[in-house]
Amino acid sequence: MIDQSERAIRWTSAVAIIVCCLSTTPVIGQSDQEALALAASTPRVSLVRTDIAPQIDGVLDEPVWEDAALIDDLTQVEPIEGAAPSQRTEVRILYDSDFIYFGIRCFDTEPDKIIAKQLQRDADLEPDDRILIVLDPYFDHRNGYFFAVNPLGVRRESLIENNSSVRDDWDGIWYAKSQIDDQGWTTEIAIPFKTISFNQATTQWGFNVQRTIRRTNEQIRWSAPLQNKRATSVADAGVLEGIRDLDKGIGLDFKPYAKSTLRTDDIRGDGLDLDAGFDVFYKLTPSMTLALTFNTDFAETEVDERRVNLTRFPLFFPEKRDFFLQDAGIFAFGGIRSNPLPFQSRRIGLDSAGQQVDLIGGVKLTGRTGPLNLGVFTVLADETDDVDQNLLTVGRASLNILDESTVGLITTIGDPASNEANTVVGGDFNYRNSHVFGDKIVQGSAFFLHSSSPEGDGDDQAWGARISYPNDRIFAFVGFTEIGDRYDAALGFVPRRGIREYFARFQYRWRPENSWIRTIDVGFDPTVITDLNDRTESSEFEFDLITIENHAGDEFEIEYQINREVLTRPFEISPGVVIPVGDHRFDRIDIGGSTSRSRALSFGASIQAGEFFDGDRLDTAASIEWRPSPNLLLGFSWEQNDINLPAGEFQVQVAQARVNFLFTPDIAWTNFIQWDNVSDSLGINSRLRWIIEPGNEIFFVVNQTFDTFDDRFDGTSTEVTTKIGWTFRF
């Protein structure tokens, strides 16, 4: 049964939800006075149209830039909110019928101290000086795009979804070049209107720009320069005015590919495969896209990182394949973290062992029209040894309501793992208000799901709600989920059924003045899971005792965990090692730290020790990354779990290494090597990527697997793939 501490957490969570809902109800709609004050504080700039396109070479020497709209009033966000920037920035903006152009001068009185270490397309630019541009071309104050560039001209782009999440794996066609000179650095950017979706009925776009000066970890921003807000909050963006007469062409992108794969495999045999296919994207309107795919291929996708599962439940892996990432945010549902997701695209095109299942073809319609957000797709998966050809369908629609909120529906049809029928339907409400008590944020969500499968008795529903206060000094949320014992989302991720989950988090942040410390965080993160009869199955009370970050970005943290696992059946955690039935309570402590990745040599380490079920466990991890120049990255990480139980002792080891040669922002040879002692196999994923120009690419990929023994490596499979992909725009 539930002990007193867990019962208190449940009642506290329920009361907190009610109190938060009641306290935020009066601020769902703004008064006219508040709305006028907000509009008056929003910065605006009128755009200048040009008949002469600037050359995108990173040098602001064309006369056309002299007539551009100018923004030079950025304000410091970090480390001192509202202070004047330590360095000046000038942002110039132009547009014509095909592109919007940005010419940015980042002045720096010490240009030799500019940090620019990343040279790989789509790299995480957090360790570098950088410029971040945010666009809301639909002007719905909810969704948008961000484009980031560093002083070496490396590009990274993402989708902004519902002001609360950023999808980094989206790839768009756009252009940027940068130069470092004796005044600092400059960048020129050109974003085609054919790349982004926009509302052709408005002449206003949401816009923001943020610069990071990495050596001091300083951030300066144009609109809403507040520590409580992120640059990616399009609800707080400024406004670009006067955008009109844009040309999206006929809105057609044709993307064919051809590939060859030479394979030697002890199980699947040897052979040479030649293949081809294509994707077609047609913009029915500037904000609604119809996509067709034939013989979809994912050969260039990087392999998953290896993780050894020491839990009773499946692990969650992120999506990495471009076809499913396109407009993926439209299919997000109910604010669900992982369980019970009604749709996880990883279930399509991959079998239970992670092997690719051919996708014969598919059609997808995604976009926005007025207040409606719509996503529908159907794919035909090829047959496997156990499953016939399978038609899999997902539909999602949501309606924008209030200022930043949505209400919607979802349905999934089909089961990729069997020939049985499966259907899921559900509805959700997602609330967000970015202007509570001035600049504070309150958001919440609620959902209901129902599944239908051929046979079986039980509860086939899932529902839940959460509300959060995700702000800088105080970050808090509380929520509840119930998942029926027969709820089955065949196209989703449901690692645990027949449960009720209560979860919460509270974090408080200090920002010491005149100190080498930038932030100090403390927090409490409780989770309690019961069965449907309120009998405890699991609980975890995590105390974030302290997390310290300095101005350079170095971190140190200490956590303490109080765990409980009630096993009603034996759990074989490792071959021959069985944890018995029982009520297991165990405490653990975790100490870790890392240095800033802006340094040429960075490292991190952690140690977690304490009880584990009816025994003990010691986890150690370490990583190191060395960038002697932007052209070379050497990285290594090691994780070891030493587990000592009455039923036996065992050790789990996982090692990973990266050796990347980066020739230009468009040519990279990356190598990812992984080994673990559970499978006793070594895997090598080597990829050469040459971006001839954005949208036109060549990949050369080698995947090699070895079985490892004490004194030798035995190769078990080799795949060598060459792929050419091209984009034709009309």
Name the structural class: mainly beta
Helix count, per DSSP?
3
- Mean pLDDT over all positions: 89
* Gross geometry: globular
Largest sheet: 24 strands, antiparallel, barrel
Provide a quick synopsis of the model.
With 730 residues, the chain is mainly beta. It has three helices and 42 strands. A hairpin with a 2-residue loop joins strand 11 (175-181) and strand 12 (184-192).
Write a concise keyword list for the protein shown above.
Immunoglobulin-like, 24-stranded antiparallel barrel, mainly beta, globular
Can you give a write-up of this model?
The model is unreliable at 1-32 (pLDDT under 50). Strand 36 and strand 37 (648-664) form a beta hairpin. This protein has a 24-stranded antiparallel barrel. The termini are far apart. The chain is mainly beta. It is globular, with a radius of gyration of 26 Å. Helices cover 5% and strands 54% of the residues.
Give the topology:
Elements lengths: L3 H21 L7 H10 L2 E3 L1 E2 L19 E3 L3 E4 L10 E7 L3 E9 L22 E7 L7 E6 L5 E7 L3 E3 L7 E7 L2 E9 L11 E10 L4 E4 L16 E4 L10 E14 L5 E15 L2 E9 L25 H4 L33 E11 L2 E10 L8 E12 L3 E9 L9 E14 L3 E13 L8 E10 L3 E10 L15 E12 L6 E15 L4 E15 L4 E13 L3 E4 L2 E3 L2 E13 L6 E12 L2 E15 L2 E14 L2 E17 L2 E10 L4 E13 L2 E13 L4 E13 L2 E2 L1
Parallel strand pairs: 1-15, 2-5
Antiparallel strand pairs: 3-5, 4-14, 5-6, 6-12, 7-8, 7-13, 8-9, 9-10, 11-12, 13-14, 13-15, 16-17, 16-41, 16-42, 17-18, 18-19, 19-20, 20-21, 21-22, 22-23, 23-24, 24-25, 25-26, 26-27, 27-28, 28-29, 29-30, 30-33, 31-32, 33-34, 34-35, 35-36, 36-37, 37-38, 38-39, 39-40, 40-41
